[in-house]
């Protein structure tokens, strides 16, 4: 799971850094990437951002709070995210973590379609994801996000009681 989280963060950070650099040069210019996540996720992403910045010394990752951006308190349970919220997040941060279920409401001009990028990236492998894990992020042939965690559920039962 940590590998998947790291891969997702690195993917978004690399995408953001590519869009932040207007022209490629031999000497890398300093860049700052903003990454928004929920408050309860902040410690984990700050650790990943530090590791990323150590490897890419010209890139600074600034972690923002989606809870502050959307003016909501971080609490357990489902939180509804509207299309206005997606615009707020997209304006405040280069990349952000949000529920895949918001994509039904997601204004597609607010987020980047990743389809072309993953099609041409040798490091991306569909096999890195559980079957169906990308389904909530796809609309037709377009890919609007990547999962940052996957929850698996199991049903346990007493066979003797059911017999």
Secondary-structure element string:
HEHEHHEHEEH
CATH topology: D-Maltodextrin-Binding Protein, domain 2
The figure for the number of domains is 1
- Strand fraction: 5-15%
Largest beta sheet: strand ordering: 2-1-3
Query: Can you identify the CATH class?
Result: Alpha Beta
Task: State the helicity in percent bands.
Answer: 25-40%
- The structural class is alpha/beta
How many runs of DSSP E, i.e. beta strands?
Answer: 5
Give the oligomer, counting copies of the same chain as homo and different chains as hetero.
Answer: single chain
By DSSP (H or I, 4+ residues per run), the number of helices equals 6
Low-confidence stretches: none
Which architecture does the CATH hierarchy give at level 2?
3-Layer(aba) Sandwich
Q: Tell me, what's the shape?
A: globular
What is the CA-CA span between the terminal residues? 37 Å
Task: List the defining traits of the structure above.
163 residues; alpha/beta; D-Maltodextrin-Binding Protein, domain 2; three-stranded parallel sheet; two-stranded antiparallel sheet; 5 strands; 34% helix; 12% strand
Structure commentary:
- The protein is 34% helix and 12% strand.
- The protein is globular.
- The chain has 163 residues and is of the alpha/beta class.
- It has one domain: D-Maltodextrin-Binding Protein, domain 2 (3-Layer(aba) Sandwich).
- The chain has six helices and five strands; from the N terminus they run H-E-H-E-H-H-E-H-E-E-H.
- It has helices at residues 2-20, 42-55, 66-69, 83-92, 115-119, 159-162, and strands at residues 31-37, 59-65, 95-96, 138-139, 142-143.
- It starts with a helix and ends with a helix.
């Amino acid at each position: 799971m940590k590998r998947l989280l790291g891969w997702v963060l690195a993917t978004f950070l690399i995408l953001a850094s590519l869009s932040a650099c207007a022209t490629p040069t031999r000497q890398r210019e300093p860049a700052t990437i903003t990454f928004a996540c929920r408050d309860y996720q902040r410690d984990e992403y700050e650790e990943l951002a530090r590791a990323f910045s150590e490897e890419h010394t010209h890139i600074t990752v600034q972690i923002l709070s989606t809870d502050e951006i959307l003016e909501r308190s971080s609490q357990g349970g489902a939180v509804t995210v509207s299309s206005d919220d997606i615009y707020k997040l997209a304006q405040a941060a280069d990349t952000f973590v949000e529920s895949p279920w918001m994509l039904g409401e997601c204004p597609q001009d607010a987020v980047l379609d990743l389809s072309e990028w993953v099609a041409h990236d040798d490091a991306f492998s569909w096999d890195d994801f559980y079957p169906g894990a990308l389904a909530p992020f796809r609309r037709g042939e377009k890919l609007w996000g990547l999962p940052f965690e996957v929850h698996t559920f199991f049903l346990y039962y007493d066979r003797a009681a059911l017999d």
